[in-house]
Specification:
The chain is α/β, with parallel strands linked by helices and about 80 residues long. Helices cover about 40% and strands about 20% of the residues. A 3-stranded parallel sheet has the order 2-1-3, sandwiched between helices. Helix 1 links the parallel strand 1 and strand 2. The longest helix has 11 residues.
């Protein structure tokens, strides 16, 4: 990936240990990771123009399920 732009992953998970594991796996492989501990903040940033290549979301988030988050993110018509 040295010649390509780094791929960007958005991770939404309230468990900081899981965030560290995902970052530890993807970052050495050339990915850029942006993490959010709650779905609402992640959605605000995506609505604000945050671009990414992939989204990983926990299913059990506070206030909003990961499935609801993904449905709302899909409704934003972002290109992932």
């Amino acid at each position: 990936m040295a010649d390509l732009e780094k791929k960007h992953i958005v991770l939404v998970d309230d468990d900081l240990d899981i965030q560290e594991i995902v970052i530890g796996y993807f970052k050495p492989r050339g990915y850029r990771i942006t993490t959010f501990s709650d779905a609402e903040t992640g959605l605000r940033e995506l609505e604000g123009g945050l671009e990414c290549d992939a989204i990983i979301a926990d299913l059990q988030l506070p206030k909003m399920s990961g499935l609801d988050f993904m449905a709302q993110a899909k409704a934003l018509d972002i290109q992932t």
